[in-house]
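Look at one such:
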Amino acid sequence: MTTDFSVPNSLSDVVLIVEGKRLHVTRSYLAVHSEVFHKMLLGKFVEGQQKEITLMGPENLKYDEFLTLLKVLYQPQEEVTGM
């Protein structure tokens, strides 16, 4: 998976907006890695139906810190071969 969230990719299906900046991500991928995102994106919240979601979060939610979180979650995985 790519770590350039500024542009959509073939799997991105929602845009998260933090400090006015757009991050193209995949709902199900975030939901698997976070109970909060699972409830927000796949549950009965209005965000589950939206294509763009502005994250308000705590007052100190910063774009750079949130981008770092996404990069940790979307780290490239080692490919398993020989099985």
The radius of gyration is 13 Å. The longest strand covers residues 14-18. The first helix runs from residue 27 to 33.
